Amino acid sequence: MKSIIAKYIAFLLLATLASIATSGLISISILNKKHQESMEDRLFGLTAVVASLVREVPRERLRDAVGDAARTLGMEGDIRLTVIMADGSVAADSAADADSMDNHLDRPEIAEAANGKVGFASRKSDTVNKRYMYAARKAVLKNGEECFARAAAPMERVESSAKQARASMITAAAFTLAAALIAVLASSIMFAAPVRRLTEMSAKISAGDFSARSGVSGDNEFGVLGRSMDSMAESIERDVAELKRARDDIENILRGMRDGVIVVDSGKRIILINEAVEEIFRVECRNSSGKPLLSVLRLAALNGAVDAVLADGAPRAIEIETDPIEGTVIDARIFPFRGGDADSGAIVAARDISRLKKLEIVRREFIENASHELRTPVAIIRGFVETLLAGASKDASALDRFLILLDKESLRLMNLTEDILSLERAQRRSSPDDAESFDAAALLKDCASSFDLFIFGEGLKLETDFPPEPAFLRMSKQDFNQIFVNLIDNAVKFTDRGVVRLKVESAADAVRISVSDTGVGIPAQDIERVFERFYRVDKSRSRERGGTGLGLSIVKHLTEKWGGSVSVESKLGTGSSFSVSFPAAL
Q1: What is the pLDDT of residues 382-396, one digit of tens each?
Q2: 148-162, 461-475, 478-492: which range is least confident on average?
Q3: How many angstroms separate the CA atoms of 65 and 82, rounded?
Q4: Domains 2-161 and 257-352 equal at CATH topology level
Q5: Fewest C-beta in 10 Å: which of 30, 159, 287, 574?
Q6: What is d(CA 236, CA 28) in angstroms, rounded to the nearest whole number?
């Protein structure tokens, strides 16, 4: 305990001594500064007097006037007044012969005054061999010439005051140190324990243990300090817990966001970035904090937009094509923000709109194609009707021919309308209420039976390969029928002779159904496009047989609607095989 008290006493004595020394030095510095400022104020006024004097006195009387003024103003001190011309030559000086003085243009106070300020400097004068403080300002002689009005005073007063202040401070320090020693010896034992406890508490808080408490009580200053520190620790503990919760909430929100979020400071260095940025921009973003935005996302357009937002504070929105081959388009919105202490930066919110762009293109193409496909039968029907109204209806043979053509085109128009509606329904999400379990092979057999007349009428042969056990699916029977009605219809339509085969394969987790034919086949360059809306491989053959160009697109959307997939294998002149796979019903 004695060693602790001894260290404590030594520490306080050293601290007291350091405090006294520091206070003394600061006080001396302040006194010196006050004396210097006082002298500067006085010299400032004297330069104004000299500047006023030279405006009233002709140049030939400057020397006498300056000398008279110095004698008048210098009753209480050794004041020196000087008039210096714009070229640096001395026109008049109250303490020396102006003609024998050097050029003063390079003097610091003159150089500063030449810039339109009141210049101050202190140095030893070579002319009178004393340390002076100088002040100078611009002035104008009575004849209009520019000059400098300078006043100077010796530094002896400032230096004398500094010596007196140092002596007084040393005396005061000695008495203060003696008093401090007595006070420290008297209070060291009483103060040592609470100081130690408060120190330990501070160390724990500094280490991050905000649950630490001082254990210091009482009504004295240590007791008040202990309670204050305990209260502070409790407040910090609550605030830190709240900050951690807020940080965790923000991280969870950012982690769950599908939009990419990047926060940069005014220097475009990354402050915060979420995981979605990696997926959207297809870059590695880990450990990106503190890095320049351009080095992480090498996108000049985005970097330029952030520059513009930081420059004028106006939000901006841009679209960036990051991968022209895949058609990847990013919508980026940049907003400015200003934090505490005038910190500023920008927030980038990015979203991949590639799918929306592609859907927009598909929608536009669909409308254009649908309009074109609908326009043709409508135009034909209108032409036939106009012909009949013009008198062709009176010709019985022409009337019969036109009615047959009208029936054909109206049927084509109806089929096209129904396929457009079917495609729209196929794009809707599946509903559990529409699903039911059934044997795929049995329903496929019923579906194929509706084509018996067409198959045998065309001289074709239908072959089936169904498993002995039921292959159960769970989906809409109506959608299942529409898928395979379209596939079987295509097989019959594009096969002049040969075989149409239906095959069902059942596995533990999937049911695969294929519709094959020995027809005309599909050229290799067209295989990837057969599922596009209104795409026809053989346009003349398809139109001749009433095809709308939507059948395979309906097949694809209905299959995907129920979690399945469709593929095609074909060779020109030998036939095609369409395979559809669905998850098996559990």
Answers
A1: 776 777 777 766 777
A2: 148-162
A3: 11
A4: yes
A5: 287
A6: 41
pTM: 0.39
Give the integer Cα–Cα distance in Å for 331 and 337: 20
Question: From residue 150, how far is each of 12, 45, 270 by CA, in Å?
Answer: 51, 11, 56
Query: How much is the pLDDT for 541?
Result: 47
Architecture of domain 357-424: Orthogonal Bundle (1.10)
Q: Per CATH, which fold does 432-583 belong to?
A: Heat Shock Protein 90 (3.30.565)
DSSP-derived pairing of the beta strands 510-517 and 498-506: antiparallel
Asked if the model's pLDDT at residue 515 lies above 70, the reply is yes
- H or E element: which one contains 395? none
Strand order in the sheet with 80-85: 90-93, 80-85, 146-154, 130-140, 119-125
Question: Across the beta sheet with 316-323, what order do the strands follow?
Answer: 270-273, 260-265, 344-352, 328-338, 316-323
**Residue with tokens 């929608």, as numbered in its chain:** 363
Distance CA 296, CA 281 (A): 10
**Positive or negative CA dihedral for 179, 181, 184, 187?**
negative
Q: Find the length of the chain.
A: 586
Q: Which contacts (CB < 8 Å, 24+ apart) does range 194-200 have?
A: 194/222, 194/223, 194/226, 195/8, 195/222, 196/4, 197/226, 198/222, 198/225, 198/226, 198/229
CATH of domain 257-352: 3.30.450.20
Q: 3-class DSSP state for residue 232? A: helix
Q: What is the pLDDT of residues 230-245, one digit of tens each?
A: 788 888 888 888 888 8
* Domain residue ranges of the chain, discontinuous segments joined by +: 2-161, 257-352, 357-424, 432-583
- In CATH terms, the fold of domain 2-161 is Beta-Lactamase (3.30.450)
Tell me which residue of 72, 96, 75, 80 sits closest to 136, measured CA to CA: 80
195-203, Cβ contacts within 8 angstroms, sequence gap of 24 or more = 195/8, 195/222, 196/4, 197/226, 198/222, 198/225, 198/226, 198/229, 201/229, 201/233, 202/229
User: For residue 186, which amino acid is it?
Assistant: A
Q: Which residues of 447-482 are buried (b: 16+ CB within 10 A; e: fewer)?
A: bbeebeeebeebebebeeebeeebbebbbbbebbbb
Strands (DSSP E) contained in 203-286 are 260-265, 270-273
- Three-state secondary structure readout of 81-100: EEEEECCCCEEEECCCCHHH
Q: Which residue has the tokens 């809707």?
A: 428
The closest alpha carbon to 108, from 84, 91, 127, belongs to: 84
Q: Span 25-46, mean pLDDT? A: 80
Give the residue ranges of DSSP H helices in 263-353.
276-281, 293-296, 300-312
Separation of alpha carbons 87 and 146, rounded Å: 9
Strand locations in 141-190 (E): 146-154
Q: Which three-class secondary structure state does DSSP give residue 475?
A: strand
- For residues 442 and 483, give the distance between their C-alpha atoms in angstroms, rounded to a whole number: 15
Please report, for residues 243, 308, 339, 345, the alpha-carbon distance to residue 342 in angstroms, rounded to integers and kept in the order given: 22, 19, 6, 10
- As a whole number of Å, the CA-based R_g of the chain is 50
